[in-house]
């Protein structure tokens, strides 16, 4: 066992310096992700008992993200990418400070906190996506995302359980509020540490300075449609577990326990899939994740009780990392292909990709809000996730088509040695 562990550590050490720094930076920042994703929503629920405010907060976040992607393209002309990346991490702590300082959770205050968190996510994800693209290649991207997801999943065991226990150990509204304030302070400290780790990297800014285009290769349009389906779930799935647990399971302590179920098994599975799977296995990985998500969402809708929520969370713990493990390498490979055909910088596609995600997020969050206001809160919580999960199954067929066309244009083993003119001629023939 120790020999196998040593072999895996040696494999990590053999990676490029920037690869290792990027993983370590995201590992430290991952410590605050469960707080941002889950307990901010729980805080809103505790102080307003209104699930619509949680979704509105999420919409504010997702409105801030694409605006910051645009802003980041401008800022990259003047600031090193690692500074912008660090600023994104630090802003997440600032957003939580704004939220905790609100005496009344009205829509304006929630909107300001949400937009600030969106600015944080926009800076973080736009720069993170480019750094992953420039630091990895198609051969080691499965390993990168498998390794990253392994740590994320392990952290998803410890952090929610620890924070849930900490909040539950306090009695009274004032004491629980103080607990949230303490957690916010710890989050801010961790983001500072993550920023310091990031500065050890030798990251280079994108070379091309123009990022906004309106015409793209048809293969890219297919990826945008895939991004839209991914965005459907993101519209409210980040906060849906918190809303379901708070409404059905009860307190934050139950939240932490429920998030920990099956996470160790999921982490081990994801790591070895990322470590040993090939690019040709991505469709299988993606399909399994989507199907597990759909099964969990439908069972939650059918049962809509404690058992249904726990089953849903258990399957989601496995399904979400499987979907991400396959989706991101597919996205980056398409960027590799179309950037060579169109002779544009890779950040162009990272920026444009956010438009597809945003369209899906609006539709996903809108589905919940329509059901909430037109019918009832219970109907929205019970059926919106199932509707989104079933719609997402279309992603299996879209991704198959993307990979088939991508491989026809640029074979997987010819990733670095294909003339752009040949690529374009092949693309025209296919289309």
From TrEMBL:
Species, as recorded: Flavobacterium silvaticum
Residue spans crossing the bilayer: 21-44, 56-75, 84-102, 108-125, 145-167, 179-199, 219-246, 258-274, 286-304, 310-330, 351-374, 380-398
Record has Membrane as a keyword: yes
A Pfam family recorded for this sequence: MFS_1
InterPro entries: MFS (IPR011701), MFS_trans_sf (IPR036259)
GO molecular function: transmembrane transporter activity
Keywords, sorted A to Z: Membrane, Transmembrane, Transmembrane helix
Protein name: MFS transporter
UniProt keyword ATP-binding, yes or no: no
